[in-house]
Amino acid sequence: MLKLLLLLLIFSSEGTSDTHTNQNRGKTPTLLQDRYLSLPMFLDSDLPLVHRDFFSPARGSGQEPLPGPVRQLLLPAWTDTEPRSLSGVTVRTSCERNRMRLQVDRNILGLGQPVAHLRLGSCRVSRTTADHLYFEHELHGCGTKRKMLDNRIVYFNELRYEPPEPTGPIRRAAAFRLPVACYFNRFVYSYKIGYKPEVQIRKVVKKMKNAAKFVLTPRNAEWEELSPSHHYVLGEPMFFEAESVLSDGERLYVNTCYVTPEKSHTSTPRYPVIKNFGCMVEGKISRSRFFPHKNSSVRFSVDAFLFKGMTGQQLYMFCSMFVGGSDPTPTAKSCNYEPKNQRWVEVSGSSSVCDCCDSSCSSDHPAETQTISSTSWSIDPTVRSASTAKMAEGTFLMGGGRETELQ
């Protein structure tokens, strides 16, 4: 008897539900007739569309049907709208968060090669099929402009077709200009649904890397800072010093250095003097070298030169450097080349770390470096110091008689 009563109750409930659905079927959007609902994750508007109390978890038991305003908002009855067209042929526009897409029917463009004559602003066709031409571009590209209109952001451009002049008495396509636009609401409104999470706050302490301040300065032969009124002499050593404030057990390293005639580290031309994690590659063709000094500074010299075709120029040295341990490694070192013995030597550690200078020094965990620029200096291409004038005939001015100008 109990089982029969339960079956009757279930049947009665299903029948009531079907009757209620049939009564409202004429007013129900198509989405409600599916066995499941695909609800939007969010909906934006320039103004609130429903009162926020409808979304309060404390309101009601949670078993009530959706209120009318909320149902209309989340389950709108979409109507079919025809997009703008030319001569009955559709040009479809779709807008994403940061892209504009257009689909153009080939029929409105006539015969021949319409791709070459159709533009969206300043952009060409992105791709083609047998029936359509497509534009797919960023909202900020192709000359697209932006303006505010009734609390909405509008991105607008122009689809332009300019076919070539016909060679005969007839034509099969007409030029046109069609405005296209994407509209976005300026504000997005969202509502809390369900529960308010409890956030557990934790403090995370992370040691800052490369927190030290680096300085790179041109120097004279006495390692004094080069004054603005002084200059280097072509072919003689230029001296540089990189410095930092370190803790015990740390050492400053220079990975790479190059010279440019501009203030920007990305400028060209550039001439490398230190490469491969601290190898003085310029020393293989000149007297350029590192000098032993304290761990908090790196001293080195480079034979003075000029870039080809440039005179009276201001030059800049850019070096990437970092702070590491006091013991050198293949990726943290200061290596000079000894021409007499044809080998690489570390200025204050084991020279075995320099074995990779003629190949490639690499590491699975490279250190984070910082690129520092020196102040500018100039080269006098004509004046020679007294020491240079006394040099015996046949000795070099720039590393064994190499050219005094570089490309």
UniProtKB/TrEMBL annotation:
Q: Which InterPro entries match?
A: ZP-C, ZP-C_dom, ZP-N, ZP_dom
Residue ranges of the ZP domain?
94-342
List cellular component terms (GO): extracellular matrix; plasma membrane
Is-annotated flag, keyword Cell membrane? yes
Report keywords, A-Z. Cell membrane, Cleavage on pair of basic residues, Disulfide bond, Extracellular matrix, Glycoprotein, Membrane, Secreted, Signal, Transmembrane, Transmembrane helix
Name the domain of life.
Eukaryota
- The leader peptide range reads 1-17
Predominant location category: membrane
Subcellular compartments: Cell membrane; Secreted, Extracellular space, Extracellular matrix
Membrane topology field:
Single-pass type I membrane protein
Q: What are this entry's molecular-function GO terms?
A: acrosin binding
Q: Please list the GO biological process terms of this entry.
A: binding of sperm to zona pellucida; egg coat formation; positive regulation of acrosome reaction
Family named by the database record: Belongs to the ZP domain family. ZPC subfamily.
Query: Can you name this protein?
Result: Zona pellucida sperm-binding protein 3
